[in-house]
Write a structure and sequence with these properties.
The structure is a single chain. The protein is α+β, with helices and mostly antiparallel strands and about 325 residues long. It has 13 helices and 9 strands. The strands form 2 sheets. It has a 6-stranded mixed β-sheet with strand order 1-3-2-9-8-7. A 3-stranded antiparallel β-sheet has the order 4-6-5. The chain is globular. The protein binds 6-diazenyl-5-OXO-L-norleucine. InterPro entries: Beta-lactam/transpept-like, Glutaminase. This is Glutaminase. Its EC number is 3.5.1.2.
């Protein structure tokens, strides 16, 4: 991750110390077996400040984690930029579900049978199926490059162990794909889509890299240092809107009330936070609450909101 300076913050360290005990009440994700190897106590946070391009951090900030569902925001931005809003929203909706992220229920009851939004698994699988490229490896390489550019870190890659673990056990996601293919919402070879999807979910980074990605969204799609456009402003806006309405699964309403910022979590325990025109935030703590959000991570963001007045509302 490249920024002007990165400094440990005593203030943030105090908040981390208050939030860390909450991780004991959470559970590691186990449906992707490799995720269960995480250290339950880990908690890290980084803030990338737009005004001076500096980064402050606290906790286990060097610890890497996989993006999991956080990658859904990035694949959405990428696909919107490459094939346009019209084609994407023909296949995936814009409404929150109130259901768990991997639920199949609304696919059966909605007419037409398209996923309600791109932040649930069904919607994200459709988005992944729309990533352009000659073949799976071409699609993957270009998408990974995009994530490297957003994070300002060309060393970012994916965790093979987590990817294989998910690929081998993704029966529910395969079921979602086949259901949608039957209804003409998803096209293409399901195994290739699963390979690409599990790779994007296994992209690995630390909280500093994630905060840098948050800073790009915070800066309306522009690189926080060079000011170059990395994501068109309108697409960055769409992504932030989905983060507010659907980013924390079926706890998005409660999160908006208690923290009040665009955010996206993943079952590895990562949370990407964006405070428009102010900063990007990366948080990681792998023990989850019953809805799949990082327990200590959420608590830390609540404490940060009280101290720094983050809420956009
Ligand atoms: O598809 C899955 O189940 C995981 N790779 C990601 C799930 C996740 O992080 C929660 N999602 N919204």
């Amino acid at each position: 991750m490249f920024c002007v300076t990165c400094d440990a913050s005593k203030e943030l360290e105090d908040l981390v110390a208050k939030a860390r005990p909450y991780s004991q009440h959470g559970k590691l994700a186990s449906y992707i077996p490799a995720l269960e190897k995480a250290n339950k106590d880990d908690l890290s946070v980084a803030i990338y400040h737009l005004d001076d391009g500096t980064c402050t951090y606290a906790g286990d900030y060097q610890e890497k984690f996989t993006l999991q569902s956080i990658s859904k925001v990035l694949s959405l931005a990428y696909v919107l930029a490459h094939i346009g809003e019209g084609k994407v929203f023909q296949k995936v909706g814009m409404e929150p579900t109130g259901d768990p992220f991997n639920s199949i229920a609304k696919l059966e009851t909605s007419k037409p049978s398209k996923p309600l939004n791109p932040m649930i698994n069904a919607g994200a699988l459709v988005v992944t199926s729309l990533i352009p490229g000659q073949n799976t490896s071409d699609k993957w390489e270009k998408f990974l490059q995009f994530v490297q550019t957003l994070s300002g870190n060309t060393e970012i890659g994916y965790c093979k162990e987590v990817q294989e673990s998910e690929f081998e056990t993704s029966n529910l996601n395969r079921a979602l794909c086949y259901f949608m293919r039957q209804h003409g919402v998803l096209e293409g070879d399901v195994e290739s889509i699963m390979e690409l999807y599990t790779k994007q979910c296994s992209i690995e980074m630390n909280c500093l890299d994630l905060a840098r990605i948050g800073a790009v969204f915070s800066n309306n799609g522009r690189d926080p240092l060079s000011k170059k456009e990395l994501i068109p402003e309108q697409i960055a806006r769409i992504c932030k809107t989905f983060m507010v309405t659907c980013g924390m699964y079926n706890a998005s309403g409660e999160f908006a009330m208690k923290v009040g910022i665009p955010a996206k979590s993943g079952v590895s325990g990562g949370i990407l936070g964006v405070i428009p025109n102010r900063c990007g935030i990366g948080v990681f703590s792998p023990a989850l609450d019953e809805k799949g959000n990082s327990l200590a991570g959420w608590t830390l963001l609540e404490l940060m909101n009280k101290k720094y007045d983050f809420s956009i509302f």
